[in-house]
Amino acid sequence: MAEIETPAGVANELRDALRSVLGDAGVVSDPALLAARSGDWSEATKMPPALVLLPRTPQQVADVLALCARHRQRIVVQGGLTGLAGGATPAPAEVALSLARLDRIEDIDAVGGTATVQAGVVLEELQARVESQDWYFPLDLGARGSCQVGGNAATNAGGNRVIRYGTMRELVQGIEVALPDGRLLTMMNRVTKNTTGVDLKHLFIGAEGTLGVITRLVLKLSPRPTASSAALCALPSFEAATRLVRDMRRALPGLSAFEVMWSDFMEAAQEIGGLRPAFAEASPVYALVETQGARQEEDRDQLERFLGEALEAGSVSDVVVAQSQGDAHRLWAYRETIGEMLGQLKPHAAFDVGVPMAAMDSFVRTVRDALQSRFPAQRHLFFGHIGDGNLHVLSGPHGSAESLHRVEQLVYEAVGAVGGSISAEHGIGVVKKEFLHFTRSDAELELMRSLKALLDPAGILNTGRVFAPTTSV
Ligand SMILES: Cc1cc2nc3c(=O)[nH]c(=O)nc-3n(C[C@H](O)[C@H](O)[C@H](O)COP(=O)(O)OP(=O)(O)OC[C@H]3O[C@@H](n4cnc5c(N)ncnc54)[C@H](O)[C@@H]3O)c2cc1C
């Protein structure tokens, strides 16, 4: 549960050496800043770091790692602290390495369609900058105003538009990483096709900072869509949603989002977000759909025609098609209340599981029934990026760590039973590591540990995230 503990100190010799690399302003021990850096959005126990380090260049990051490796000082890497798995939450005696000052957009290649950025650039800033140059960075998620592109890569973030553009893994073309021994590995590839041996960037994307600190990235851009249409559909069942997404993919190649919200989520969104119901009658399931293209009127007509036919066929019970960008924002508002819900339902268990589509309906029914019968006083909300088989469940508030743990055990066991994944996009961090065995084999875990030992022999970097440490410092 989220309490704040007291930090342990750092040896004076190391503190002085860090100051000589970063300057006085780059080594912070102000208690207010330490408290602000004591955890992410998860329920992992908050803990102020012993110091906050604020490098300004990739080389400074590498130099800090070399120093800490020599002194066997553990480090936690911090991006925008919007993670939901506790990976950026300090463990006792760790110093926090913040990427906040590596915040430069170095170059936008308007011919090749790439952006070269430092890892601390905030996602929303990047989106706005590339759009001002008629390009588009399609990664999008509710935390866009605070999360950093380095954190997005470290967690292989997904979000709302994976159905069309893929996860962060598909959007990173080149990467620069400071290794735990102080080497700076620069692999800023800018070409689309590159078959020159093992593609090492994939070791660091999704590794949650356990193998290196991402300092710079080359990101793949798409042409900026000039038209966007959205609609909210009320559906008679989840099965209708699976048919709808399949048919939409065939008929509307511009489909860019397909977000499903079950009625429990919609009710909570209306209540917590103070939003008016979109339909006169409640339905069991809702789908928020979006298409992106180049011709506003034609695209919206096409979407309207498609949904009109679905309405006549009875696969959709009711529909609202946005007639303006303002309407579209109002429709997205139901889905985007998740930020407020995460705040209001604390302490909560926030799940981000991958479930095979064929098993999704029965999975949701079984898990919802089990949660409601065992935890009747809590809210259990189901929603997700269902076009990608990514289901979110938010359960809370839970009054004790034991109650949270029982919920986690229940959901992850059910995920294991249907051959799913315990994390589709938020990562493992510290809050899910004891459940990783449900979806990764012993052989896979052993190989992950070997890679960690190879790249971080002193065991200083984000140790204890994803899996338990093998080396002790
Ligand atoms: C309201 C809300 C909505 C969200 N929606 C989504 C969603 O739809 N899809 C999704 O995927 N996630 C979502 N998230 C989770 C979160 O926003 C993402 O995980 C995001 O990618 C984390 O970025 P960050 O910069 O905040 O990372 P942090 O929280 O700071 O760190 C996350 C992990 O990455 C490591 N890390 C951070 N920066 C670096 C770096 N430069 N190098 C190496 N390791 C690093 C940290 O040590 C930690 O293990 C949501 C979160 C919130 C609060």
Describe the structure.
The protein is α+β, with helices and mostly antiparallel strands. The chain contains 16 helices and 18 strands. The strands form 4 sheets. Strands 15-12-14-13-17-18-16 form a 7-stranded antiparallel sheet, sandwiched between helices. Helix 14 packs antiparallel against helix 15. The two termini are 26 Å apart. The mean pLDDT is 94. Residues 40-41, 76-84, 87-88, 99, 119, 141-143, 147-148, 150-152, 154-155, 157-159, 208-209, 213-214, 338-339, 342, 425-426, 429, 462, 465 line the site of flavin-adenine dinucleotide. Flavin-adenine dinucleotide binds at residues 40-41, 76-84, 87-88, 99, 119, 141-143, 147-148, 150-152, 154-155, 157-159, 208-209, 213-214, 338-339, 342, 425-426, 429, 462, 465.
Q: What attributes does this structure have?
A:
473 residues, alpha+beta, seven-stranded antiparallel beta sheet, five-stranded antiparallel beta sheet, 16 helices, binds flavin-adenine dinucleotide
